[in-house]
Backbone:
């Protein structure tokens, strides 16, 4: 990852730099190093804003939402995800938007905002169907099923 980042920087390939920073942050997040993950995602956001990359901004904000959620900062995570979903929609990154909307549904659910959670999961499911992404469809369906089971309803 670091080598990918170094190459992207030396070639001044900002799109690859954004991806490398977000990949590095994801690796750090998986390792539980939230501080380093936050720093990588924040740097990816700055580069994305500098070059006005809507897809990069959406990706970086969504990943910052993951860090906030891991830290238990649900209100911050919600804000990150809501803004990220808008950037991903503008960038026509519908698979990314679906993922972000499922994450947003998780946050709404954790906050007791069931109606908003259902809406977010339904948007995620619709987008996932449009881009024919079975994993993303299942992710959204899992969220909906959890809600409907709790309510003793059927999907």
Residues:
């Amino acid at each position: 990852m670091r080598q990918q980042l170094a190459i992207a920087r030396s070639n001044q390939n900002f799109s690859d730099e954004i991806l490398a920073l977000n990949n590095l942050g994801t690796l750090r997040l998986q390792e539980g190093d939230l501080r380093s993950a936050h720093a990588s995602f924040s740097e990816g956001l700055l580069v994305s804003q500098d070059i006005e990359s809507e897809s990069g901004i959406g990706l970086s904000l969504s990943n910052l939402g993951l860090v906030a959620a891991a830290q238990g900062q649900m209100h911050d995570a919600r804000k990150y995800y809501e803004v990220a979903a808008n950037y991903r929609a503008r960038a026509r990154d519908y698979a990314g938007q679906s993922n972000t909307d499922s994450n947003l549904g998780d946050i709404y659910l954790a906050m007791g905002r069931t109606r908003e959670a259902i809406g977010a999961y339904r948007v995620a499911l619709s987008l996932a169907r449009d881009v024919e992404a079975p994993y993303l469809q299942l992710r959204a369906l899992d969220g909906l099923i959890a809600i409907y089971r709790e309510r003793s309803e059927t999907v």
